[in-house]
Design goal:
Elements lengths: L1 H16 L8 H9 L9 E5 L4 E5 L4 H8 L7 E6 L2 E6 L2 H11 L7 E4 L5 H10 L4 E5 L2 H13 L4 E5 L12 E6 L8 H5 L1 E11 L3 E7 L6 E8 L14 H7 L4 E5 L3 H6 L1 H10 L4 E6 L3 E7 L5 E7 L4 E6 L4 H14 L8 E5 L3 E6 L7 E8 L2 E3 L1
Parallel strand pairs: 5-6, 5-8, 6-7, 8-9
Antiparallel strand pairs: 1-2, 3-4, 9-10, 10-11, 11-17, 12-16, 13-14, 14-15, 15-16, 17-18, 18-19, 19-20
Helix pairs in contact: 10-11
């Protein structure tokens, strides 16, 4: 136990030194330290060895198990792997703190959490609201059972339900606060319906950020600002997309041409990357530094890909395959972001109505907006 306490203290110090504990919500640090990560972790954790996820068993490798839990403020811990892919985790401590801060949670607030996972996040919520104010919904019965056991062992007072969190709770009751621990592309309207007017919804959006929405006084819309960067697993049942490598293997190189942008900017400036996520929502982009420069991999998860490489200060070159010219689309999206004034992550916001969802920059009414997505006959269209 002493070793785990030392690891926990090291993570706490790293959070403090990097200014990651929210100053406006001091309760977050207090409850996170009271209910540390190891109290909610299963005996078997998972780590990526470069080729696949492999088990780290506490009974076999307690040191390695502890290091996975307390790797650092920006490191999540995989707690479940299904068919070779991670399906549950203890989120990285910095994002847990940031999202709880965004929730503006007060004592006595009725709170709905979507995605119980290990139960830790709902325990942190309940430590602030008081007992019997938090309901958490979990899709996976095995995870729900583990979360229930963890919550009972740390004080109880949280209701665990099995179900699809995208529908909220079956009884349709309303809450002061709603928070999701998995990412959605379209914020479910059920979450808005089950939030009191003036209440707050915090959820990861897409593959890169999280948003806090305030429900309007008439309950017919919710809007708010992007709160920061976060990468979360999607909801269960989300259609899987192909990886960059899979798309490339299906479509050989069709073109090679200069790419007139500096890859160093794309790699180092999160504002550019997030802006492209908003403007080109179906493009998946990742970058890396190489020994000689930078490389970017772009794909649409279905049929088209691009690989852009830049060595030193020389021009970047894009190879691409498939029916779409993704390097050109990326360039056009970058240009549109610049035309909008180069909004930073925190300059973006979201509006959700019963019929549509869209993102905007600078101002919800007068700023540029993107990604209008409408529901027609119950079907989501872009």
């Amino acid at each position: 136990m002493g070793r785990l306490s030392d690891l926990q203290a090291g993570l706490d110090r790293a959070m403090e030194e990097q200014g990651l504990w929210p100053a406006d919500s001091p309760w977050v640090r207090r409850v996170a330290e009271t209910y540390p990560r190891h109290q909610f972790a299963p005996q078997r954790l998972w780590t990526w060895n470069g080729q696949e996820y492999v088990v780290v068993d506490r009974a076999v490798d307690p040191e390695g198990w502890g290091r996975l839990l307390y790797a650092g403020p920006y490191e999540s811990t995989v707690t479940q792997v299904t068919s070779g892919l991670p399906t549950s985790s203890l989120s990285c401590e910095s994002v847990v703190a940031d999202m709880l801060d965004s929730l503006d949670l007060q004592a006595g607030h009725s709170t709905l959490e979507l995605g119980a996972a290990t139960g830790r996040n709902s325990r942190l919520l309940a430590a602030q609201t008081g007992p019997d104010h938090v309901v958490t919904v979990e899709f996976d019965p095995h995870l729900a059972a583990a979360a229930t056991a963890n919550l009972e062992a740390t004080g109880g007072g949280v209701e665990v339900c099995i179900g699809d969190g995208n529908f909220g709770t079956p009884d349709g009751r309303r809450y002061d606060r709603v928070i999701s621990t998995y990412a959605v592309e379209m914020v479910p309207w059920a979450w808005v319906e089950q939030t009191h007017p003036g209440g707050r919804i915090v959820t990861p959006w897409g593959r890169l950020g999280h948003v806090a929405l305030k429900v309007a006084a008439d309950g017919q819309s919710a809007r708010g600002w992007i709160q920061g960067l976060a990468m979360f697993m999607p909801s269960r049942g989300t259609a899987a997309t192909l990886s960059w490598e899979q798309v490339r293997d299906l479509h050989p190189v069709a073109a090679e041409a200069p790419f007139g942008r500096d890859l160093a900017v794309l790699h180092e400036d999160a504002n550019v990357l997030f802006g492209l996520r908003v403007i080109c929502p179906d493009l998946q982009v990742r970058t890396a530094a190489t020994e000689d420069g930078r490389v970017a991999w772009v794909h649409d998860g279905r049929s088209s890909w691009a690989r852009i490489e830049q060595n030193g200060q020389g021009p970047a070159v894009a190879q691409q395959g498939g029916p779409r010219c993704l390097a050109d689309e990326l360039t056009a999206g970058w240009r549109e972001w610049e035309k909008a004034g180069g909004p930073a992550v925190y300059d973006f916001g979201m509006t959700r109505t019963p019929e549509a969802q869209y993102l905007w920059a600078h101002h919800p009414e007068t700023g540029p907006r993107w990604g209008d997505r409408e529901l027609t006959g119950g079907v989501l269209t872009a």
